[in-house]
Here is the input.
Amino acid sequence: MKIKPKMIGIIIVSYNSKEYLSDCLDSIFDSTYHKFKIYLVDNASADGSCKFVKSKFPKVEVIESGGNLGFAAGNNIGIKKALSDSCNFVFLLNPDTIIQKDCLEKLLNNHTDKTILQPLILIHENGKKTSLVNTTGNYLNFLGVSYCDDYRKNQSEISGKEITSASGAALFTSSSAFKEIGYLDDNFFMYHEDLDFCIRARLRNYSIKVMPDAIVWHKYHYSRNMHKILYVERNRLLFLYKNFPVKYLVLIFPLMLVNEILISLYFLSQKSLGIKVKSYIEAVKLLGCIKKSRKRNLVYFKNFGNVKKFIGATMSFEEAKSIIFYPYNVILSAYWFLIKRLI
Here is the structure.
């Protein structure tokens, strides 16, 4: 009996991404695996993205969201459509990416039940594909700070491994995962929504892995855009409250307070303290919604050991090196060593 090929729903959320879409979509249609549907969710782009895709790529289903709903809500629109179309798997993909020909095939062949996979995401810069790592997943510090792991390491240094969280830039899993874990959290708008999804997955005993032989190139540019940092700071606090037990939050509070003071001083030095203050105000406004989500997680906190073993102590930003990180990381490591066994 011939086995019916599995259908992959590929979700691309676009916001003024026209300059990237041709390369991204061409690479997908050039894949060795052909059983897929592409859903382009457009968040009210003003650059003609929708018209361009409808004209050049008629096989792509364009969904106009009607406004800039953010990365999380945009993906959710696509995910729900893929599930309604009976797609077996979902692949979240950034518009500024290019996938290797056999990427889909390798992700599909290596997927098992209750698993989330991330391809190895390499950097595409100066118009060229490189062997430098953009991310092998999201690193997570115990204070909720998260960033690209293994950034700018060479591809040859990376092996298949369990990771804390898959990056939303290229995340592959079964459709059933969204039915069990839930969708991305619309409240996050952008940033930390992929980490939030993966931590909820770990609480539900999912495995999360990077696949070094499934390649995606990302036209990644580091930016210190203060508007984006607002969401990073706000969502970091909401993420901790939503997904971590009370005991954990109490134990990290002393150093969390120190960390918030240091971050506020940094914002003050950048004449942007108002951004940090606004992140607190917006976090408080969303607490009611996040509290409801936290209640759904309570029953799974018994599995927090699945999360704890993937949490790190130190912070290291390749694009924002500072001498202050050295003594601070000593303090962070010592503090995490002391409290980790108590959680």
About this structure: DSSP finds eleven helices and twelve strands in the chain. The mean pLDDT is 93. The first helix runs from residue 18 to 29. The radius of gyration is 20 Å.
